[in-house]
Fold this sequence. Notes:
Elements: H1 2-8, H2 15-21, H3 25-30, H4 40-61, H5 67-78, H6 80-90, H7 100-104, H8 111-129, H9 131-163, E1 171-179, E2 186-193, E3 196-203, H10 206-222
Antiparallel strand pairs: 1-2, 2-3
Helix pairs in contact: 2-8, 4-5, 4-8, 4-9, 6-8, 8-9, 9-10
Domain RNase III: 1-130
Active site: 47, 119
Catalytic activity: Endonucleolytic cleavage to 5'-phosphomonoester
Amino acid sequence: MEALEEKLGYRFKDRALLENALTHSSYANENKSRGVQSNERLEFLGDSVLGMVVADYLFRTHPDLPEGDLTRTRAALVCEGSLVEVAQCLSLGSYLKLGKGEEAGGGRERPSIVADAVEAVLAAVYLDGGIGSARKIIQTFILDREEEKSASRDYKTALQELVQRESGQVLGYQLIGSEGPDHAKTFTVEVDLNGNPIGRGKGRSKKEAEQNAAKAAIEKLNG
């Protein structure tokens, strides 16, 4: 459990909440005589906590976005696929308590099970440390990562479209350095056009550095 807490960046005061969040109904059903409870109630609460935090974030950061777009964006951020990505980052499947049948059937990799467990863990953090603690985890594992992906898509796609106005143009991204401790590294990426450097960028991840390099390249080419 300590390894999972390390990945989450949160230390539980009541470890029983985390234990409950990782207990699938199949395990609870096999251990009814011991009074074991499944994570389904926590999943219910976590779904609401996640939806509220994401909705609040979108409302504050996109003041001009209409209700329909806000709803669609929130749905994409809280969908099963998004939660499965979070579970993979945390290796959450390896910590689950599953019944024998679910274990044999590959339950640790089942998308619906690990996605529900993410919601249950968020609820456990909320109950243990309040909405601020839950918000930090949602920001780190869902909102920040989505920002990186969107930014990377935008600038890299824009640069690709810009250089393709002429045929035979080849872009390349190279990691040229990194600095800082493991938990707070800064990466530097250089983008070249036909082997010639045209932009350089830094970021907290390689993807973020790539998008900053693409942005710098666009500014240079349009300069």
